[in-house]
Structure formats: structure tokens, C-alpha cells
Amino acid sequence: MKFSIVTVSYNSEKTIEETIRSVISQSCKDYEYILVDGGSTDNTLNIVNNYKKYFNKIISEKDNGIYDAINKGIKVASGEIISILNSDDIYYSNNVLSDVENVFENDQNYKCVIGNTLIFKGINNKKKIIRNYKSNFYNWMIYLGYSPPHPSSFFKKEVYSKFGTYNTKFKIAGDFDFFLRTIFINKIKYRKINQNYVFMRFGGKSTKSFLNHNKSSIEILNSFKINNIKNNLFVIFLRFPLKVIQYFLK
Q1: How many angstroms separate the CA atoms of 213 and 55, rounded?
Q2: Cβ-count burial of 212 within 10 angstroms (0-12 exposed, 13-18 middle, 19+ buried)?
């Protein structure tokens, strides 16, 4: 089964090389690698050019946010399985793709495989794990505004073809909206695996400030409205205890 790995970047000179190395060191070689860069002005593209032979497609142009960039990568992807590995994410081991492939091959009805994401601070070999974003997710959690770990979620491309890509109206909660449409509303068949698939660097838009937590909650509420599901901010704020627990169970 062929993978399409989509890496989105913008001024990522400090982190992108580690991302690339984690891709090209995978034991499974049946993949294409797609970079979608937002027009970086630092050394990002020079670093990418050092690894140019490993990329099947490099797009560098202005975009309308991270979900617009991800959609560009999905549009040109030819693989059966899509992996979104952003420029500050790293595959946990060299066997991630082969492990995910085995899960899909054991049951062709699975449309998504979800593993654990380890959120860390630091760089290179000095990683401090601060949160274990585990795959122990249940559909009812979506109603609280809680979704599975997106970096460790591998979707078949047919899911994007059938249910659409990421809604670019959202700047923070586009992945939540995608999970809402695919897992909660359309009930695609997915498999949870209690294995670590991705290291994710702390400091993304949804986590770096209390203000962004509020913005993400409002976007999540808007996602419910767009999809004609009644909800309210009080219920959505109930997702925070689920997240806090992960900081103590890492």
C-alpha cells in the first residue's frame, strides 16, 4: 500500500531537517514525499534542497493557512494512505509506516488508523515529553470538542475524496472539523492502536496561549453549527480535563 506523506512548512529551518530524516529513514519505502511550503524566507528551502532527491513534489507559494497548504498536498497525492507530518513533527521510529500498513492490510475495511502522539519540548536528542496524546478515543468525545491525535492519524485517500478535505475557514480547528465529519457524522471504520507513531513539538496554534484555547473552542462550536449539530461552549470546555489528564499519564 502506497503512502503519501505531506509535510507543510513555513520558516521551519530549526525543525524541518529532523522531520525529513524521520521520513527517509522509514523501513517501508513504498511512499511518495510531498512538501508544501508557504513561501519561507529563512533557510527552510535551502535545507529542503539538500534532500531534494527524496521529494516527489515540492510546492512553495503563499497559502491561506495550514489547512489550505495540507489540501494542496492531498490534491496532488497519488498514494492510498495519507500521512500529514508537519515540519515540526517527527515519526517515532523507523517502522511507523510498516506498522500502519500492516494494520490496514489485516482489515481492508479500515478507513483510518490512529496511534499515539508524544508532545515534547526541546530539539534533536533533548526531547522532554510533556504530554502523551493517546489513541484511547471514543466517538462521544467529539461532542466535547475532543478529537484524536491528528499527527498520528492515517486516512485512506478515499475518505478525503468522499467527505472532502479540510475546511480552510478554520485556522486552528480544521482537523477537529474533519474528524467530526468523518468519524462522528459518517462513522467511518477506524482502528485505534496503542503505539507511539509521532513526536509533536509543543507550541502549536491551539496550545501556545489561553487566547488560542478560546479561539479553538469558538471554531469547534462553529464546526458543530456548520454541520447542523447543536452544542454549546460549556460542553466544549469539558474537553480540557481530558487533556490535562494526559500531562500526568505521560
Answers
A1: 35
A2: middle
- Copy the grid coordinates of residue 229: 449539530
Q: CA Rg, the chain, in Å?
A: 17
Residue appearing with cell numbers 489513541 = 135
Q: Contact, 20 vs 88, CB < 8 A?
A: no
Which has the closest alpha carbon to 79: 167, 157, 178, 171? 157
Q: Is 27 exposed, middle or buried (0-12, 13-18, 19+ CB in 10 A)?
A: exposed
d(CA 147, CA 183): 10
**Domains in the chain: boundaries:** 3-248
Which of 188, 185, 165 shows the shortest CA–CA distance to 175?
A: 165
The residues of the chain scoring below 50 in pLDDT are 206-207, 209-210
Q: How far apart are CA 39 and CA 65, in angstroms?
A: 12
Nearest to 72 by CA among 62, 81, 80: 62
d(CA 72, CA 69): 5
CATH of range 3-248; options 3.90.550.10, 3.40.50.720, 3.10.20.310, 3.20.20.70: 3.90.550.10
